[in-house]
Fold this protein.
Amino acid sequence: MSEEKNSLNFLEHIIEEDLANGMPKEDLRFRFPPEPNGYLHIGHTKAIGISFGLGQKYNAPVNLRFDDTNPAKEEQEYVDAIKKDISWLGYSWANECYSSDYFQQLYDWAVLLIKDGKAYVDSQSSEEMRAQKGTPTQVGTNSPFRNRSVEENLELFQGMKDGKFKEGEHTLRAKIDMESPNMLMRDPLMYRIMYKSHHRTGDDWCIYPMYDWTHGESDYIEQISHSLCSLEFKPHRELYDWFKENVLEYSKSEYPNPPKQREFSRLNLSYTIMSKRKLLTLVENGIVAGWDDPRMPTISGLRRRGYTPESIKSFIETVGVSKRENVIDVALLEFKIREDLNKTAKRVMGVLDPVKVVITNYPEDKEEMLDANYNDYEDGFGSREVPFSREIYIEKEDFREEANKKFFRLKLGSEVRLKNAYFIKANSCTKDADGNVIEIQCTYDPLTKSGMDTEESKRKVKGTLHWVSAKHAIKAEVRAYDRLFLDEAPDAHKDKDFMEFINPNSLEIITAFLEPSLQSAEIGERFQFQRMGYFNVDDDSTKENLVFNKIVGLRDSWSKK
């Protein structure tokens, strides 16, 4: 029992303590509250995993709530994408909620705060309010409108709601303490006027509640027991509690259980940006092809690239839950997809940078079908037939005219094994006018066919090459992706814009030659191209024009860099 207690993360300890202190287990309720102003990214998967993971652990409901209070930036497209991403990760929510569902309740509570002298309408400009807010070391000064009468505040707030004023003419502020050391407590905004159509409420409202006012009260309405958020919201907790305690006085009988906010460190990843605003900049400037571009750290981008839900969940589990901010090496995420696909992906052959090999002693009119397992190390993957003929393609880097003893691939005068086929020996090569090898002439040993139990096939040969029959190979577009940024922390430089660190070679389009079994590959299907890496069939792919994305190489090439 003590070992199990020690293995709990600090959030689980908090919950266990609450249960031990008398909280009924049926009162446990969690939520994941994204703002629908962009696509979810890898950073969100930690918050998703924590909330939904706790729901699964304690058999408690988890709400998916959209904090949709800013119609200028929010769209239904983002709502749909978020739902798709969470479902793809394998989680299901108890209730689909929207903060906009609570607009009337929030407004009614705001009126009660005004009546209690705890909120007022301010008529200063945003610049004036910013100036009188003070600094972390200097207290703020009261607004000249802070002591308006309750009657005047109610009349002005009603006028704001009725559309009688221009944007920016008035705001509603909580009346707390302009001298508080926590600047968030210095009479924070609760409502602003916005003449923007909302994706759900249309033009019903022209005043919209601010995040800090909406978020905690939405938790309260939904009777969330533990409001879990990332560390940047820790200073907000005091305000969260102030709003909660005041509203509790109005609705204790209807909503008996106040929520508790607790914070965990967010997920920061090297060579990656996590700001939705900056990701939108990449989309709008055409640096990437959209939110689901396979170079993007969005969940939809990772899905299109070929990442699996299992690899992402394993990554999040390894990262763990902590209170301290840190940066996780993106190599760990890449390791997790390799680890997963190594167990699940079929091995096939594809040549990405071909050079022709002519097997001079193989009959010109002969073709044969060779049996090839999809996985030599695991059962259950099955096999397929691979055609073999006189002319094949191998990778250019797999041949050298001369090489030292550490080069175990094809060189003049030496022998290698062709995967699932024969031993071949390089005898000569043909070059173009620039000295590039364009053809290699080889001979094969017919007694070394894979599966033959002959003395010849037992010869010691160190190199095994993948290949495709030139006559039977299918052409495909391969999109070889590299990291989008060259800098480990692209948005951490005060004197430089993150766009300066864009990798100009983050995408290379290759015409590859693949074994014909891949003609029937379906969109989203993942494969290991032997010795080359892991690839999946892209959304753009058709039967006539196959398109593969490189998910990740077989090993971490960046560690060498």
Notes: The chain has three domains: 21-264, 269-349+471-556, 355-466. The chain is about 25% helix and 25% strand. The radius of gyration is 31 Å.
